């Protein structure tokens, strides 16, 4: 599949490389074409890898991944353009973290709203699936880095879009029984508000290579 | 140990009964002495169980449990009285849920603060330990209701207080290796902001008897 990945940071490059390994054609998008990190990435990975603007990547992709910093995601999607995104699945892995007040970061939106919901409202034709935001980039594309079985969440209003996102998760090695559908895009609220707890787990375990497993009653 | 439990709802009564089973003397506190639920509870469980006002329960306890509704917790603790609480360990299991805007509930405090931190600031002499707020009442006192191993968090500024709270957890059946210390009381933020995710897990699993297990890198 042709996939556009928005965001050239660690998360975007890790996901783009992982998708490429799984046989997809990937275009990495940033604010300006010729972004240094994106050009270096495309040269390093080889194969059907390219780079361009957010609009180039969104137009290229049959499916689009939002891996931009959460605080910049709506801007990035506006630059990508509603017409390039219309009707497509957006796999939204972003977290609305605000580091401007120091550590720990706060969220730019939470409690009665979420970034996932904001994106879905701003782009009504986009089929937003929130997923993977609860693990670090390396674990997104290689879940076996974390010992044992553990859970990855998907949420969104479009069942077919969630199925398509889940297929990408399975290609990364997430077992079907570890993928937990939390319902509509409103679940993005809980998934994003988990981040402050994740940051404390990171502190307690002294590694970002961690995740949670959901256990239900016997 | 003599323990005062503030709050006569399901959480307070379940914890009070569990503590009683584990050999403690328990006084259940509410806004007014002679509260119907508290009187019925004391009559039903028998043994060293009593009831009274928040101040009665706080004064009685060598250790105090806050099991009031989060939105009412600061009021309840003010009624209990700083002088009854001074120097004691407060095991805070509350969640600052606000149901006044309908479902899903929002949090009355989050993102850059938490109820656990508010309580610690308001009662500087109190040794607040946030714990158990991430599981339903039945699981608090009987963790084996949830299949497999799963994690319970403790957070607070006082290491001895956390050790004392952890002893109570072990009496309930939480294995030592399942008790995860998340650091100072600032971790209450993440523990309370987990609630919106918990509510979605409840919806997905169709049972409140659930919990998460933290797995770290291989």
Give an overview of the whole structure.
Two copies of one chain form a homodimer. Chain A has helices at residues 10-21, 36-45, 54-60, 73-80, 82-85, 115-122, 137-141, 159-172, 188-193, 195-205; strands at 2-6, 25-30, 49-53, 63-66, 89-92, 97-98, 106-107, 127-131, 152-156, 179-181, 210-216. With 218 residues, chain A is an alpha/beta fold. The first copy, chain A, has one domain (2-205): NAD(P)-binding Rossmann-like Domain (Rossmann fold, 3-Layer(aba) Sandwich), CATH 3.40.50. In chain A, helix 1 links the parallel strand 1 and strand 2. In chain A, helix 3 (54-60) packs across helix 4. The longest helix of chain A is centred in the last third of the chain and has 14 residues, at 159-172.
